[in-house]
Amino acid sequence: MARNVVNIEEVSKAFDIKELFVSVSLGVSEGDRIGIVGRNGSGKSTLMKVIAGIESPDSGRVTKSNSSRIGILSQVDFENPESTVG
Question: Which of these, 45, 54, 69, 85, is most buried using a 10 Å CB contact count?
Fold first, then answer.
């Protein structure tokens, strides 16, 4: 049986009056591959930050196995968009 590495239970997060996600629960087991898809501003990056422990949920619980490591490669905003590689 696959070992559970991350669990989120009844997790909610909002900014001001905008609820990004409410009562989200999921589990990720060793070997799982997951994708988080949604519209811009829907809370995908925030959900990953909550799972990684970078941000705290407003409610609910996130648990990770002691051996799990979660990394995030954040989006980058360039000061000068003309300087990007195209």
Answer: 45
